[in-house]
Amino acid sequence: MEVIVRKTTGDAVNLTAQLIADAICAKPRFNLGLATGGTMEAVYARIAALNAEKKVSFAKVTTFNLDEYIGLPPEDVNSYRYYMNFHLFDHVDINKKNTHLPDGMAKDEEAEGIRYEKAIKKAGGLDLQLLGIGHDGHIGFNEPMSSLTGRTRSKCLTPNTLEVNGKYFNPPESMPKRAFTMGVGTILDARSIIMLITGASKADIAAQALEGPLCSMVTGSAVQLHRNAVVILDEAAAAKLTLKDYYNFIWENEPKWDKYRHF
Ligand code: GLP
Question: Among the atoms of ligand 1, which is closest to the Cα of residue 135?
Fold first, then answer.
């Protein structure tokens, strides 16, 4: 795991977008795992701009999202399908047939998890999984105590998540209490991971996930297990990291970051 701290949220976001674009340019037939949430909105705006500037093409990219609310149809403004169309897919040269999310309306939940896992496998596995982190440390919707080897399945959300994400719903109580999510095991199978954490409100959970013990109470800590994971933070989110000087030293001295130092 490598940790990169950038001064501003904008720099952290732009670096994230650039690393994704560069990975796609290096392998155009790319399987990209995507995340939702407020943090990712700026990343998708930047990726859409890079696409408009013809610096990256999604023509051969296939995407798989981490999660979807149970009970919301794709046209619901709060579904993650709607979010993805709105923030990314409607603005890039991707074939929507190649964009996948769990089906929030699936009748047989167990079968839906199995179908989604099979679809990822059939596509050849994920080249890169983009991750945010929830205030309770969740990745996807792997709430505290989710198995660190879990696969795609339905999960009951925590009251904390209902409170944090409820702000997007009107009324907040209409937010679904359950969701489909890739498991931590599914996420760790991706060939690479980029996690983006921004904002002062994430400083505590960032320190727990990155420098605390590996544990299912903070499923984001599972990034510590991955052999090819990069975690990008802004200064605010990195405020409670103890090894920040070391992370900065690596950033300044690792040749592979040479071309990114302007971020
Ligand atoms: C949701 C998503 C997560 C995301 C989290 C953080 O719960 N399921 O994948 O990481 O939100 O969201 P935000 O960026 O809004 O803090």
Answer: 16
Tens digit of each residue's pLDDT (9 = 90 or more) over 189-198: 999 999 999 9
Query: How confident is the model over 64-81, as a mean pLDDT?
Result: 98
Residue type, 249: F
Query: Is 165 near ligand 1, meaning CB less than 6 Å away?
Result: yes
- Between CA 75 and CA 212 the distance in angstroms is 40
**What pTM, to 2 d.p., does this model score?**
0.98
Neighbours of 262 (CB within 10 A): 8
The model's confidence at residue 121, banded by pLDDT at 50, 70 and 90, is very high
Q: Measured between alpha carbons, how far is residue 217 from residues 115, 204, 220, 248 in Å?
A: 27, 14, 9, 28
What's the average model confidence in pLDDT over 90-96? 98
Residue with tokens 């990114």: 260
- Phi, psi (degrees; rounded to nearest 5) at 196: -115, 125
Structure tokens given for 7:
């001064």
Provide the annotated active-site residues. 67, 136, 138, 143
Ligand 1 binding pocket includes 37 (Cβ within 6 Å)? yes
CA of 254 to the centre of ligand 1 (A): 30
